[in-house]
Write a structure and sequence with these properties.
Elements lengths: L6 E5 L11 H9 L2 E4 L2 H10 L6 E3 L5 H13 L4 E4 L11 H10 L3 E5 L4 H7 L8 E5 L5 H10 L6 E6 L4 H12 L4 E6 L7 E6 H10 L6 E5 L12 H13 L4 H11 L4 H10 L1
Parallel strand pairs: 1-4, 1-5, 2-3, 2-4, 6-7
Antiparallel strand pairs: 7-10, 8-9, 8-10
Length: 279
C-alpha cells in the first residue's frame, strides 16, 4: 500500500499581540502531527495560550541543514507538519526557505496559512507610497556588501522596507542618509502590535537628530521613500566637473563616478563621462 505524503503548512504567527492569529492558523496548529518552531519555548507560549497540545521540534538557522532531512522523512511518511517562526510569516528572512525548496524538490505539498508580517504592517501605516515597494530585510553587516547594496538603491523609485535591531538603528540611518540622501522621507515603526507600538515619521535628517537624543528601543521596521524625479539634482556643467573631481579624489574611477553622479543628478551617465573626457 502506497503511503500518501504529508503536507507542510507555513503558518504565520503573531508578531507581538497573541490575538493576531487567524482561526485557520489555530486550527492548523491543533490538527497537524508536528510543529517545527524556530524556538520551541517561544512558540510554547502561543500554544499554551490557545491550549494546543501538538508536539514541537526545533528548526532554526543553526540546525536547519541537518533538520531538513529529518522533516522530509516525516513528511514522506505521511505526517503533516506546521512550520512557524518566532514572530510573523515563516520563510521571510528565515531558514524556512530551505525547507520549502526541499519540499518542492521532493514533490511534497505546501500550504501557506497567511497572517501577520511586520513589513506590511509598517508599510500600510507609514504614509509612504504603497503601490510599488521592495522588501530588503536586514542589511548586510559587512561594510563592503552593505555599501554596494545601498549604492544599488540610489535610483530605486519603489518604497524600500528594512528591518533593524535597536543597537544598530543609528548606524543604519546614517548609512541611508549617506547613500540615498538625507532629505528622504522615512517612517520608523517599532514594537508593532505590542503595548509600546510607535510610529515616527519625517526626513532622514530629522530621524538621525531624534535618535541622537532618544535611545532606540525595540525592533524596528524602516519604511523609506524611493527616489523620485524631484530628488535629482539639477547641476550645471561646471558643478558636474567639481563633483566629479571630488569623487575622483576619493578614489573612484571615471566610470564609477559617472555612474554615481547619473544616479544623483538629471544628467545621463554617458553625457557625464563625455564631459569629463573632453574637458
Amino acid at each position: 500500500m502506497t503511503i500518501s505524503t504529508g503536507i507542510l503548512y507555513l503558518v504565520a504567527t503573531p508578531i507581538g499581540n497573541l490575538e493576531d492569529i487567524t482561526f485557520r492558523g489555530i486550527k492548523t496548529l491543533q490538527t497537524v502531527d508536528l510543529i517545527a518552531a524556530e524556538d520551541t519555548r517561544h512558540t510554547g507560549k502561543l500554544l499554551k495560550h490557545y491550549q494546543i497540545k501538538t508536539p514541537t521540534i526545533s528548526y532554526h538557522q543553526h540546525n536547519h541543514q541537518r533538520r531538513v532531512k529529518d522533516l522530509l522523512e516525516k513528511l514522506s511518511n505521511g505526517l503533516n507538519i506546521a512550520l512557524v517562526t518566532d514572530a510573523g510569516t515563516p520563510a521571510i528572512s528565515d531558514p524556512g526557505y530551505n525547507l520549502v525548496l526541499a519540499c518542492i524538490e521532493s514533490d511534497i505539498s505546501i500550504i501557506p496559512i497567511p497572517g501577520a508580517i511586520a513589513a506590511i504592517n509598517g508599510l500600510i501605516a507609514s504614509g509612504l507610497n504603497t503601490e510599488r515597494f521592495c522588501f530588503e530585510g536586514f542589511l548586510p553587516q559587512k561594510k563592503k556588501l552593505r555599501d554596494n547594496l545601498l549604492k544599488s538603491f540610489q535610483s530605486e523609485t519603489r518604497t524600500l522596507i528594512f528591518y533593524e535591531a535597536p543597537h544598530r538603528l543609528e548606524k543604519t540611518l546614517a548609512d541611508l542618509a549617506q547613500f540615498l540622501g538625507d532629505h528622504r522621507q522615512i517612517s520608523l515603526a517599532r514594537e508593532l502590535t505590542k503595548i509600546h507600538e510607535q510610529f515616527w515619521r519625517g526626513t532622514l535628517t530629522e530621524a538621525i537628530a531624534f535618535y541622537q537624543k532618544k535611545q532606540p528601543k525595540g525592533e524596528y521596521t524602516i519604511i523609506l521613500a524611493g527616489n523620485s524625479e524631484s530628488d535629482l539634482l539639477d547641476l550645471s556643467q561646471e558643478q558636474i566637473k567639481i563633483e566629479m573631481n571630488k569623487l575622483l579624489n576619493q578614489g573612484m574611477s571615471k566610470s564609477e563616478a559617472s555612474k554615481y553622479l547619473a544616479q544623483q543628478t538629471n544628467w545621463s551617465r554617458r553625457d557625464i563621462y563625455q564631459l569629463i573626457v573632453n574637458s
